[in-house]
Amino acid sequence: MTKFPNDFLWGGATAANQLEGAYDEDGKGLSIADALPGGPERFSIVNQANFDWKIDTTKYKYPNHKGIDHYHRYQEDIKLFAEMGFKCYRFSIAWSRVFPNGDDKEPNEAGLKFYDRLIDECLKYKIEPVITISHYEMPLNLVTEYGGWKNRQLIDFYENYASVVLNRYAKKVKYWMTFNEINSALHFPVMGQGLVKSNGADEKKNIYQAWHNQFVAGAKAVKIAHEIRPDLMIGCMLLYATTYAYDSNPANQLAALKENQAFNQFCGDVQVRGTYPAYTESVMNRYGFSFKDLDVTADDLKVLKENPVDYIGFSYYMSTAINVTDKSLETANGNLVGGVKNPFLKASDWGWQIDPTGLRIALNELYNRYQKPVFVVENGLGAVDKPDENNFVQDDYRISYLRKHIQAIAGALEDGVDVMGYTPWGCIDLVSASTGQMSKRYGFIYVDLDDEGHGSLNRYKKASFNWYQKVIETNGEQL
């Protein structure tokens, strides 16, 4: 197997809203994640026309409010990551911890001090922080008062926020990303853009306007970052679902190409190349509007052109198959994007189709398209873990999943792809974004907490902990 580079960034990934808890402590404001009910029905609740962002604890549970209490236990968690040998740790800053309402004039110093401590704790163990500036946790006020990212005013609010955190932490933190899974909004714009039915989610033009505003805001963050520290690496972050035509029927081949353009490529093309792609009008016409219908200025296009990202971070959990010629085929679940069931693949407990080869294909597609480094910043298996009487989880199924995906990365390195690193998702159990459940677990570390919020919150190493420790120690040679 191809050797991994000596500077390969092995680590793990989390998001503030899914593990920190302390949702109303030390001046933190409410985020959209704080208003999302927990449980497998959370998406259908959010999709209701009368969803109004009101928190109703008599009706719903809100597991994000507690998370796994990382806010108070981060030292214990970082120590465990260090014991595994992490070279890096990808986490996000909670925007509403720094600017409680998003439009505040001054940042919340208590929130900034928490991230001072968290970053220093990582550096104590020589763990490189990889920070996502906005990861599905925009301040709720920016949705209820401004209508979410379709409002251009959010460009200035984000620029101010990014400026504060970049100026504060750039000397200590080299690796950054602007928006988590920015393209996920095509199918589900609530978490990335703050759009629901009541404020325009059903109108695709609003999603594309919101994207444009995010592209401009992200480019301004890139500009700020490079002015502060020229060697700083700031990337975009995509949800990548390798997309196949179901068969060799040309109609399905064309449909797969169109789906690739609209979902996997569009947001990357703008942020990496700095310009809208040739197929922009075609994609927008499909949804009944034109590029000229968007609020786009000459200055916007200039800032996009002058400030492309340095690398492409992406999540990869599953692939999808497209069939437009046979409507009777069984469909498959996925990470905010589905498709038809692929007869050649098995699926996870939640129906996500497991496809390690798809990761090798994704890495090749991204690198050959953009010729910039790629970084697998999310990948993992959500599963039901059953601890024994000693709270030990023998998660061989997770080890098998991760082993095959690491082998796929090695294959991509052999293909000539410049892969920066690998940070499996939910390196410690946390609240699932898609279902709001604790029972959908990804981690190397078991957290004693159930879907009802009961448990000691104690941390326990799973079998995968020692396995991943050996993977890092041998730089991927022992899988």
TrEMBL record:
Leader sequence range is none
GO cellular component terms, semicolon-separated: cytosol
Positions annotated as active site in the UniProt record: E378 (nucleophile)
Q: Which PROSITE patterns match?
A: GLYCOSYL_HYDROL_F1_1, GLYCOSYL_HYDROL_F1_2
> Tell me, what is one Gene Ontology molecular-function annotation carried by this entry?
beta-glucosidase activity
Its BP terms in the Gene Ontology are: carbohydrate catabolic process
This chain's protein is named 6-phospho-beta-glucosidase
